[in-house]
Design a protein that fits this description.
With about 70 residues, the protein is mainly alpha-helical. It is built from two helices and two strands; from the N terminus they run E-E-H-H. It starts with 10 loop residues before the first strand and ends with a helix.
């Protein structure tokens, strides 16, 4: 799912089920490119046999070591 930031003036309708906005044509092409890029990276970790939580902890530990060394 992509996050799109638009000015409030683009809002046409909003209720508990939909948000309808007017999307300027010049922004549409850029938005489609961004969505395509996001979709192509979706699931990049799917085939890896890595626990993402453990990976995150390990990386953060490495960052902490580097930060404390440079201080």
């Amino acid at each position: 799912m992509a996050v799109v930031i638009l000015p409030r003036s683009a809002l046409i309708e909003m209720n508990d089920k939909i948000i309808k906005v007017e999307l300027p044509e010049d922004n549409l092409e850029e938005l489609e490119r961004k969505i395509s890029a996001i979709e192509s990276t979706y699931g990049i970790w799917k085939k890896k046999k890595i626990d993402p939580i453990e990976y995150q902890k390990r990386i953060r530990k490495e960052w902490d070591k580097r930060l404390w060394k440079s201080s």
